[in-house]
User: What shape does this take?
Amino acid sequence: MKKEFFELATRQGIVQWSSYRPASHAAECVAKGVTMPIVQWKDAYSVKNLAIDSQHKKLLKILNRLYDDFMDDVNNDSGHEAAIDKLLAYSEYHFQTEEQLMDKARHANTYNHIQEHRLFTEKIQQLKETLGTDRKERSRELIEFLVNWVLQHLIVEDGKIAH
Assistant: This one.
């Protein structure tokens, strides 16, 4: 994640360094037999819409589960693909909900927001397709992308919906 984003988010009390655990932290957790979510919900992530906040919480749970799956067994091809498919399916459902709300409210940034959703989906598909090559590195890249994108999108882009 961009250092500037974390510095800004930390100054504003939106995110704390401890709420984001980089993929490199995984080996230490696994070695100690500790399972920790890679990202945890904070009230500061709220967009003040119960439906969207509930969906965001579920997305974070799916992301944390995917992270746990990768940490448990980096070579589990079928399990990882199923978990990624679940993330993609739920993301699409969530994106539709967000986009409908933004369109209904005639939000000025709807088109750009939709484009970000599409780019997210395309990137996840691309990373999923390349998981077979250097699985450990691709898994790290996928989790890192997901955490970075989701936190940035929740705090910055979805935060605009609340205003």
